[in-house]
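dude i think i finally got it to work??
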Amino acid sequence: MIKPPKFTKEEKKFWQRHYRIEKADRIPVEWYRFHSADSDCDDEFFYYFSLRVFLLEDIYLKDSQITDEGVKYMVNFKYLQSLFLRKNRYLTNQSIQYFNQMENLQKLNITCTEITLTDLCEYLDNQSLREIFIDSDENEDEVSAKAAILKIKVPDCKIYLNCSHSTDFFDKPEKPIF
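look at this
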């Protein structure tokens, strides 16, 4: 087994503060899920986290402090399949370039962010996506036109508008726009 490099001073502070880990070899490189809601997770958090954690399948990050820079660090997580970024108000369409680089990404929730349906039509190009959740206040004709564009760009993907999950509170399926 390869011994991980020693911590830098700043990195050691990060792991002690967040996880009470004192030595680099105590950090598991494989995590199944990262879950944080209403937190102070920011770009620096994901910078240090991505230096040591390599395999991560699911990120649930609601209402944090990350920006597009934080999403850039998430590209380093191998096998990332689900990315829930609801209410992350500092995300912009610049994050889409990083979503496109996530080769295993199947589910993306960007509701209550600055990213729009128009942004997806212009910049999204990730064929692995199977479900996207996004908000839109556009009229039905505009949504239909954009749905047609997205159907061509990501043909095997269901796009859900103005909802956060594929089922409602009563476990009844939500209807995607296509």
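The mean pLDDT is 93.
im so relieved honestly
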